TrEMBL record:
<comment type="similarity">
    <text>Belongs to the mitochondrial carrier (TC 2.A.29) family.</text>
</comment>
<dbReference type="GO" id="GO:1990547">
    <property type="term" value="P:mitochondrial phosphate ion transmembrane transport"/>
</dbReference>
<feature type="compositionally biased region" description="Basic and acidic residues">
    <location>
        <begin position="352"/>
        <end position="364"/>
    </location>
</feature>
<feature type="transmembrane region" description="Helical">
    <location>
        <begin position="315"/>
        <end position="336"/>
    </location>
</feature>
<dbReference type="InterPro" id="IPR023395">
    <property type="entry name" value="MCP_dom_sf"/>
</dbReference>
<keyword id="KW-0677">Repeat</keyword>
<dbReference type="GO" id="GO:0005315">
    <property type="term" value="F:phosphate transmembrane transporter activity"/>
</dbReference>
<dbReference type="InterPro" id="IPR044677">
    <property type="entry name" value="SLC25A3/Pic2/Mir1-like"/>
</dbReference>
<keyword id="KW-0496">Mitochondrion</keyword>
<feature type="repeat" description="Solcar">
    <location>
        <begin position="261"/>
        <end position="339"/>
    </location>
</feature>
<keyword id="KW-1133">Transmembrane helix</keyword>
<dbReference type="GO" id="GO:0005743">
    <property type="term" value="C:mitochondrial inner membrane"/>
</dbReference>
<keyword id="KW-0472">Membrane</keyword>
<feature type="repeat" description="Solcar">
    <location>
        <begin position="160"/>
        <end position="244"/>
    </location>
</feature>
<feature type="region of interest" description="Disordered">
    <location>
        <begin position="344"/>
        <end position="364"/>
    </location>
</feature>
<keyword id="KW-0813">Transport</keyword>
<dbReference type="InterPro" id="IPR018108">
    <property type="entry name" value="MCP_transmembrane"/>
</dbReference>
Length: 364
């Protein structure tokens, strides 16, 4: 079963050899055809695995997916660690709104009690946790996008591409949160429980001694509730926003834009997606913060204690944080692809087979 999944995900079938060549030629399939119509990604002749001129790898190859995962490590690990001070204040507003009334007051109280070093609390679990999450989120998103496209076919992949983005991103985030959960639990414990621990190496053994492995995964379900909708919005909104920007805003096709111009579009689309991400995932984010603060509590109990108004505490700082975060993540991810000379498909185009069918039916 697993080998079948990999075969589909890599979008490669074996072609029979001929007397003229002893090399197998990978057949362009699935997402390679439907969302990258008109562009030859894999070699059509000569040596198997040969890339386009200037590309460092073949689209859909293990090398390609590995680089996507590396780009995810950089984009998520760097950005989440950079905004630890804002994240710390946001978490404290969520779990103790009486003490931390708003963002500015939260920073003021934190600086008074802990000094500037206090603003960096939780940086280590943030860096390691979100690096692992980024590896799974971006790497598996690319894998699942190709896998599901191969399952539903070229034409359906184009017609229902928004649904494709949503399902692929949700599948990737399911596994990404399993990797993130232990570090997220430690981060919130460090940031919201005064005197509990100041470092990761102190917090994790202490958490394990109190509640065992459960302490690292007790917030996994609310984490899924927060992260899966967030990631679905992050990827689907970004993909469609990029498509719309090139169609209605950018005065020339993406192929004619310089690398810097493409990265500007990436940043703008990422910020727009980030705003929607923050709104969709905020209530679950508040529950995660409250749950990891209190020992022995459940997600439902935490939500009841917070109430409807409490679930939306800290929304504005999170919109600023997530908007900026998402924009920077897509910027770093895309910049990494440029730097590594990875194949970067243009916006989706209608497959020729679908065009002909719609023309025959008089719908195009």
């Amino acid at each position: 079963m697993f080998s079948s999944f990999l075969t589909r995900a890599l979008c490669q079938n074996s072609a029979p050899t001929t007397p003229d060549t002893q090399h197998e030629v990978p057949i362009q399939m699935g997402l390679v055809k439907s969302l990258v119509a008109g562009r030859t990604i894999a070699a059509a002749s000569a040596t198997a695995g040969k890339t386009e001129e200037g590309d460092s790898c073949t689209f859909g190859s293990p090398h390609y997916f590995a680089l996507c995962g590396m780009g995810g490590i950089l984009s998520c690990g760097i950005t989440h660690t950079a905004i630890v001070p804002l994240d710390l204040v946001k978490c404290r507003i969520q779990v103790d709104p009486d003490k931390y009334r708003n963002v500015f007051h939260g920073f003021k109280v934190t600086l008074k009690e802990d000094g500037f070093r206090g603003l960096a609390k939780g940086w280590a679990p943030t860096f390691f946790g979100y690096s692992m999450q980024g590896l799974c989120k971006f790497g598996l998103y690319e894998v699942f996008k190709v896998f599901y496209t191969d399952l539903i076919g070229d034409e359906n992949a184009f017609l229902f591409r928004t649904s494709l983005y949503l399902v692929a991103s949700a599948s990737a985030e399911f596994f990404a949160d399993i990797a993130l959960s232990p570090m997220e639990a430690a981060k919130v414990k460090i940031q919201t429980t005064p005197g509990y621990a100041n470092t990761l190496r102190v917090a994790m053994p202490k958490m394990y001694a109190e509640e065992g492995v459960y302490s690292f995964y007790k917030s996994l379900v609310p984490l899924w509730m927060r992260q899966i909708p967030y990631t679905m919005m992050k990827f689907a909104c970004f993909e469609r926003t990029v498509e719309l920007l090139y169609k209605f805003v950018v005065p020339k096709p993406r192929s004619e834009c310089s690398k810097s111009e493409q990265l500007v579009v990436t940043f703008a689309a990422g910020y727009i997606a980030g705003v929607f991400c923050a709104i969709v995932s905020h209530p679950a984010d508040t529950v995660v913060s409250k749950l990891n603060q209190e020992k022995g509590s459940t997600a439902l109990e935490a939500a009841r204690k917070l109430g409807m108004a409490g679930l939306w505490k800290g929304l504005m700082p999170r919109i600023v944080m997530i908007g900026t975060l998402t924009a920077l993540q897509w910027f770093i991810y895309d910049a990494f692809k440029v730097a590594m000379r990875m194949p970067r498909p243009p916006p989706p185009e209608m497959p020729e087979s679908l065009k002909k069918r719609l023309q025959a039916e008089g719908k195009l």
